[in-house]
Amino acid sequence: MFWLACEDLKQETNPELVEEKARLIYEDFISILSPREVSLDSRVREIINANMIEPSPHTFDDAQLQVYTLMHRDSYLRFLNSRIYKDLLQQTSHSLSNSSLE
């Protein structure tokens, strides 16, 4: 959701809508009060706070880069260790063993 909102912001040319969309992204994903807060380091948060003085379509570029880098490094290993993947493996092996008995 964060990524898509940032990509939508990048397409906006109306300054008033840029400001509104940037504010909504900040409230929904950057604010420490948000239930959907994106994990960002303090350096990126400071950049975003400075960018919010005069929001542009690229206000959240540094945040997107940090999220992308984290996902690139970490998401596959997290997926392999996830409960959903382990359950799927167990179901698949169970199905395969049942079909070989027939």
UniProtKB/TrEMBL annotation:
Annotated InterPro entries: RGS, RGS_sf, RGS_subdomain_2
Any Pfam family the entry gives: RGS
Superkingdom classification of source: Eukaryota
All copies of domain RGS, residue ranges: 1-89
Protein name: Regulator of G-protein signaling
Organism this protein belongs to: Fasciola gigantica
